[in-house]
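ingest -> validate -> predict -> emit
validate: passed (alphabet ok, no gaps, 191 aa)
predict: started
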Amino acid sequence: MPPWPLKNSKHEKFALAIADGKTCAEAYVLAGYKKNKGNATSLAATPEIQSRVSQIKIEAAAAAQASVRRVVTELARIAFADITEAVEIVDGRVRVKDTASWSPDLRAAVAEISDGRDGVRIKFHSKPQAIETLAHHLSMFKENVDLNVSVSLADLVNGSYRLERGELQVVDGKMIEVTPAPTDAKIRTAE
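emit:
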């Protein structure tokens, strides 16, 4: 295991900046180097830097008592909060329920409570943002779909002719080659 912190102080600053969420190029400059995207990317790819960044993140998570499970739980609290747990309508008027009766999930979802001239206002954390973040974490969205297709114009034309002649069929979005049914016709041979 390499020594922590890194012996090279610029490398240590670079790793700290990467772990803090900076881009490679930003971290490279913050570490004291002249701007050079290629060198920044190369440095970030070294095993020494990658190990150090991982170590910094592990230490930060432990210090914050953060874990993937805890983060997902907090996001779920926000994403699935129900405002009717915080307020009720009595005689046509909105009434805030006693906060002592609020569940821990509801309390975590509330960003702010203020009392102004228009009455009490309860502001929740962003549900759409929490739902989107959860969905990304759970891989519910397809990203970086490669749409590069290397098919020549000749292949496209030939494929369309084969479709027309019934040699190819589309089944479940895939091209299937159709094997012609055997015929009873006798093959004539030249005599």
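The helical segments are 9-19, 24-30, 37-44, 47-63, 68-79, 104-109, 127-137, 153-165.
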